[in-house]
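Lecture 7 notes: from sequence to structure.

We start with a single chain of 89 residues. Read the sequence below before looking at the structure.
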Amino acid sequence: MRAWLPVALGVLAATPLGAQTVSLSKVDETTYRHAVTEERRNIFAANLALGPAERDRFWTVYDDYVKERAPSRPSASRSSSAMPTATRT
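Now the structure, written as tokens:
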């Protein structure tokens, strides 16, 4: 069922988008994440020829995929301070 999702992501990644200039002001993380999500959806819409019903179905599957990849709780994300460091002997 989700076999086409990696293919769609691969096609999107292979599509040349050209140089883009992005200016950021001091925004909170929630606003930033929302803006990035909306921009990602715009890029997908521009590069995938989907009808309205297909587009709705695609984003439902994609949103489920993103939720599965996200850590279930904030402390589950790995920060650099939580990772073990290698020592030389």
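The first helix runs from residue 4 to 14. Keep this in mind for problem set 3.
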